[in-house]
Batch of 3 targets.
Target 1
Amino acid sequence: LDNVRNRLCVAFIGVLSAGMAVVSSFGLLLYAGVPFVITVANSPFLILGIGVDDMFIMLANWQQTNVNDPVEKRMGDTYKEAAMSVTITTLTNVLGFYIGLMSDFPSVQAFCMYTSTAILFCFFYNITFFGGFLALNGRREASNRHWLTCMKVPVKAPKGKPKAYSLCCTGGDYDRETGLEKEQIFTHFFKSYYGPFITKPWTKVCVILLYAGYLAGGIYGCFNLKQGIEMKHLAADDSYAISYYDDEKNFFSNYGPNVMVVVSEAFPYWDEYEASRLDRCMENFNNLSFVRKELFTSWLDSYRLFARSSSLDLNDENAFMANLPTFLTNFPDFKLDVNITNGSIIASRVFVQTADITNASMEIRMINELRDTADKCNATKLLVFHPLFIYLDQYSVIVSGTALNVGVTAAVMLVISLLLIPNPLCSLWVTFSIGSVITGVTGFMALWDVNLDSISMIILVVCIGFTVDFSAHISYAFVSSNKATANEKAIDALFILGYPVIQGAVSSIVGVVVLAFAKQHIFRTFFKIMFLVMLFGLAHGLVFIPVLLTWFSCSSSPHKKGTKQEVPRLRAVVPYNMKSEIKTVIYDNRAFVLGEYAPQSVKTQQTQIFVHQIPNRWTCDPDCP
């Protein structure tokens, strides 16, 4: 543990900036009157994962800068690499959620509005608040101060000091040859072991076979995906409603919803001709295959039987209305089925009992046929309703809505990737990974007993954003690498961003793992899908995408392997007799030469250049013409 390079406080500020983003976005939207629904409660967990992921990316790029450079230059180098990667993922996430506003479900719209706004705040706080603290921490590191006490400490313990002194009171060591921080265990693992292993020919073949198995499992699950949500899943595990729905399923599973058919306007029930037309409409309902005709319940039929037993004539309006209160008094069960206002019947209802509704496809058929039958009635305006229809209505739009949101979002991701990743082929691979992860998540969530409903639809939209995070980071690092071959580029990308990607995935899973033990089914579903998203996204970012990039190389280097690149010289800059031990610092487009000679500065054309001190020759600058 290096007491100077320790960045515990920086990590705390990264988490704090994510929390500030949640508070700022929620406060703004609540002030603006945007409704807060229960699905929005999942948003803070997502923002924590996104914010921490961006923090890891920035820290990884900070660690790749030269510790001897001024803090300003180190920050510039950090933002040059990290800002683009973070911007790509932020834009794709935000646009993905804003596209979710096109959903037909208000709960989805509210979730997407809150989450996308929070991501914008998270991006702003990361590049300002967190970046500012990172710069302050860089000044502390430059003066070799302790991470906790901020007191200056030696790099190595003086002779005679106990081992505890070395553990607690020393730090700030780095690689003297490269000027970089010493490699961490995990980054060294990716560079020296995992990267070379994953780029071996036989390993690539095994990865492709593994991917084929993954894809086959995902496609199989997609064909077995079920629609719908059970009513008991809307209640907490300890709610009495769970027992009610369990008993209903155990003892009354043969019976479906008892659907009301509403006459929603004034109607002359006493008119024999109009009443016969209405009876034919009701007969059409009873003739449906899933309706139990013997369980049809009608206040009008019962009133007619009552009238015949009492020798009443109901063909006259006055007699019909005069005897109706007596009937309702004798049969109080029908009182709520007739709406009498100012002496007139303005609405009434009857009930049809459905049966053998065993799955979502039967529920879809039931609701569609009932509504079609009501629309075909030419006697009066009919309406069919049951409280369950509120949840069944989603079936008509859930598949098409999910496909639309996923398709449009993937297209937007492709456009952003083409604009910001300097290689079209790599942009296509990013888009390909989106479709691949969505296929896997959709298929395996079906195998994990998760149905497709409005809740899982929300999280599938989330899936797209996190998928881009993993693949875009690795792809951008791949095309930005200055290595010669595709295999070397893949190893370099994994060396730089492999560990931060793992940190981001693990932190996101840890952020939502508490939901796995929640009492509400909605939160457990959220955890299941998020876990699949992180697992498959990580597999694509660290396994599948690097291998595919090496086979279908998107190397942007204009120099072919084996071609000697001419290194132009820096003209009239440094005297030829300058000693090699003289220090040269490059910053702000100037080369500062410090030593026993007078300080000199040379204007260059590029901020980040490397100066090679060659004795008895001119100093060479590869980036200057």
Target 2
Amino acid sequence: MDSHEAPKRKRGRKPKPPAVAAPDNGNHDSAPSPKPKRGRKPKPPAAASPDNDHPSSPLAATVDTPDPGSSSGPRGRGRKSRRGRHELPSDADVAPRAPSPTRRGAQKAAANIKVDVPAVEPLRWEQVARVMPSMDAVVKVFCVHTEPNFSMPWQRKRQYSSSSSGFVIGGRRVLTNAHSVEHYTQVKLKKRGSDTKYLATVLAIGNECDIALLTVDDDEFWKGVSPLEFGSLPTLQDAVTVVGYPIGGDTISVTSGVVSRIEILSYVHGSTELLGLQIDAAINSGNSGGPAFNDQGKCVGIAFQSLKHEDAENIGYVIPTPVIKHFIQDYEKSGEYTGFPILGIEWQKMENPDLRKAMGMKSDQKGVRIRRIEPTASESGCMQPSDIILSFDGIDIANDGTVPFRHGERIGFSYLVSQKYTGEKAHVKLLRNSKVHEFNIKLAIHKKLIPAHIKGRPPSYYIVAGFVFMVVSVPYLRSEYGKDYEFDAPVKLLDKHLHAMAQSPDEQLVVVSQVLVADINIGYEELVNTQVRAFNGKPVNNLKQLATMVEDCNEEFLKFDMDYDQVVVLQTKTAKAATQDILATHCIPSSMSDDLKA
């Protein structure tokens, strides 16, 4: 090799000539470059906007676009530059170079061209203006709860705190969810942008509809706050905005979505079925009680629960305005919450043609068949099993139990019943033995054998010889067996919970909750959550009756007939004497709850 000959550069290390700023049409003026290898074809320049005068972005007019055919570094870096990761050049990087043949469109390039930025769609300020004042009516709810202790019913559990959302309505009142203030000890409210918490008073709690009504006595709280207005029931695909104070921060949060379903929903807290909205906006813990707005800034519902499932995402539920207005008007009419009336019946669909024919229905008749009637319901006086309900308040019921709702929509006929108020009458048309009968029935709420709530009262209990007798309720089952009590509780208790009907208004399901171990109850220690059917041969109707019979017993033995044909026998004098020692050992103040002493 000649000593004066320049060393040969390694392949792939050819220096890159200086680049020039790209013109507005996206073309590049550069010296001819070697043909790239197959498979390394450079990306063509970005297409111009429709008017051919504007780049795809404001940055395109100033970004230096290197020649695809030349590379100033390793091939890996060249690939990165072709993917669009360009940098703005500095003055030291730009140097003059030989001109190249003029390409098509290059005449449009000029040194001082004004670049027009593409128009951006303006924000919908008129919609923001509607929602912003409404958001000031949304408050944060702070509650201290003290739940009952079903394992030790003579005391309560350790208190805990929670936060949720609420909003101001007319009449110096605030709405939130019932489960947000359940078993409350203290409730405080804080307005948006304020650092002061105001003590609140709970006016009414509707467990069935999961709504609570609050007020604040301090006049300072109501200054500068405008109550929300209620809108009409939205339709499918209507936009909704949920506002509240969910977990993840302390300030107000806004999520948006659309109404995806309107139907009768199962209210988890109330263990009832009422009208509800399903939306695809996120509803998280802390959103409960917050309002859902429509496009006009009016409240169309209250966020209250969401669906947590591995196959579902962003499914939230909202209490609609018909349910909210029913709750408010019920309180205003009665001075207290009286509840949503129901028909005390169980019914069956009549979709099978043979079944309809056997029941004497004509081809133009539709309805549902009554399976069972609650013995304590007023409907038991006029309705009978196997009657066919043809209509309710003049609205015909279909064979699947639905009624017309809105254009193109149908809904369960229980919606018609829930629109009524306790004590009101309804006109019902029945088919019995192929004859049509009409009745005016008085609507009411009906007591279930296993109630869904204890309405803030402490649980009832009675203790004798270490046996703790209690009343079964849904909170009791949830406390004993957790959230999945419907799967884990004893089968006989679940059967009573799902299918049993109270034969009298004061009937209760009494069980031996546990046995406080002592010498007097040796051999009975394993009795847990077993129903007490009779005492000394007399049926047990409720806990107060059992306590009275035991306290007044003068017989030699106390004999309890239990479920599963078990029997518990104790000597009367010895059992009553041992009770006081057992109470002292476990620091129990009384052998029975206060409600049983009255």
Target 3
Amino acid sequence: MASTSRTLWAINPKKRFKAYVQTCVSLLKKFSNQGLITQGNVLHAHLIKTGLSSQKYIASNLLILYLNCRKFAAIDQIVKEFDGSDLVVHNCLISANIQWGNLDQARTLFDEMPERNEVSWTALISGFMKHGRVGESMWYFERNPFQNVVSWTAAISGLVRNGLNFEALKLFFRLLESGVRPNDVTFTSVLRACGELHGFGLGMSVLGLVVKSGFEHYLSVSNSLITLSLRMGEIDLARRVFDRMEKRDVVSWTAILDVYVETGDLREARRIFDQMPERNEISWSAMIARYSQSGYGEEALKLFSKMVWEGFKPNVSCFACTLSALAGLKALSAGINIHGHTIKIGINKDVFIGSSLIDLYCKCGNPDDGRLVFDLILEKNVVCWNSIVGGYSVNGRLEEAEELFELIPEKNDVSWGTIIAGYLENGQSEKVLEIFNTLLLSGQTPNKSTFSSVLCACASIASLDKGMNVHGKIIKLGIQYDIFVGTALTDMYSKCGDIGSSKQVFERMPEKNEISWTVMIQGLAESGFAEESLMMFEEMERTSEVAPNELMLLSVLFACSHCGLVDKGLGYFISMEKVYGIKPKGMHYTCVVDLLSRSGRLNEAEEFIRNMPFQPEANAFSALLSGCNKYKDAKIAERTAKKLWELAEKNSAGYVLLSNIYASSGRWIDVSNIRKFMRERGLKKSGGCSWVEVRNQVHSFYSEDGCHFQSDEIYGTLQLLRSEMLGVETQQ
């Protein structure tokens, strides 16, 4: 700037008039764009001194400077010097009033003009569009005598900006019929409209017209083509467009980055991100958001730190995604620091920032702090309502969660899904079904996630009738082939004991993922179809690309244990790390102990426990004790029971099993000693539980429990039956 000013003072206006004027205009434009009114005033004084301030071209640029800086006294002075009737002055005043939002004043100025040109009409058309007054804009467009490509494009792009994509395409067809040739800006807007409407066939037709018109290498057109290709799912086409671009800007790079971000290819997305010669806040936010959403919270935080270090200012979206990543990591301290920064820059009350903060505090076990954030949000939307309901649910405060749920002004499917998931996570399956019925009565359609939660509740109480009823609703909505819903149905039927229906649902699924296969293999194993479970696992390895996971291999070991396939089970256990790259955990070791114990190889089982690389689970000793009970081995049982008591002093299972072993061996004194010891410690055998479903209501019963609301009638009926049975015996 200083060098340009020095150049100006060095020019002799008399000898090099043209260069002098050009330098003055250049400086005025810079001062105008950057709002440097003081420098502008100095230059204006200099121009008055040289007698050039009244030159029309210089005066119009001075007017633009003062309009941009809102210096109304100077504006009035310049307008007077033009005698108020100049076309350029009027156009400048119209544009300024539109920029300030004074649309009625802009229209008055337009109506007062003695003559108008295409700039006047286009300024009004685009101005009204910019402020959402589409009807008025189109009124002026239809009466515009200068319908050239600029005014057509102003109307088309304005309609797209206001979400009226179909109307924009109709206007584009009118443009083609009128004989006016579209320009690169026209094509950019039309391609965007095609993408928004998912009109991919039409988009390809427009692409043909773009190529025919020679605009395919224009930067903005190519960027729009990449975005359209992404919406079409045509990743290869998007990449070809990008690779053929002669020139790329940050929008181009961000567009191709979005292609891989949206498809979840994080490795390729990161490679492109690292190659970008220039990045903006959008590209940083896109990468941070995808890392956060994909469960890579630490990577998201590293990228956020790098973004700040490189001098970029995170936007609201970026802060929200970073807070979500911190919530996933339960990094409360770092979250509090970012919360403080959002307060400092004044965005803490933004609804998206607020929702992420609620999520952070609630996941870190501080729902009261989450509630404080919620109460400070000025304009609450359904997202923040859902966040606070979910937050209280996660922390087990279901009464408060339900109270807030009832206060949501407009519940959506996520709201219902959130409260249902909350009750499910807290083991209240009956309440889940109750709220689901209320949801259906409200007229709201459950989403796939809600159906999955409800099916899980049906499975947990083994309510086959309710599960089948839900299945019927799923079929009615046509979502039975969805991979998540199909997996939930498979799980529900297997846990309710209907393994045939479970297999039928599984086999009809057009697509199966790791969880689908795991559920089916586990369901077969736990339902007593161990051999079929192993066959299913082998079929998966043979026919699909799904890799076994920890839970799947646990089910395989479980199946081998119940089939008596000891060597095969041991083979799978050894293969876990060597073949599948999965390090066995405590539950896998426990399953091997059970495998050996069931087959009578008690010494091997005991040795296996002794050689575990970590502290054995109590269940491992329980499994060995069960084997000792089956095969009447009191010596190993005594050693195992001592180990179990050390690990689980309050657990009565080990004492009961050893007592049974002594009883089966006729060692009644030892049985008596154990029972006496249990009484002294206040230990009791866990009560059994059973349930029955009557008229769509599940009734649970526990041993020696009188909590059922019809207990008196139930025990009275049992006593009556007992009396009648004794009476029959007496008669006989």
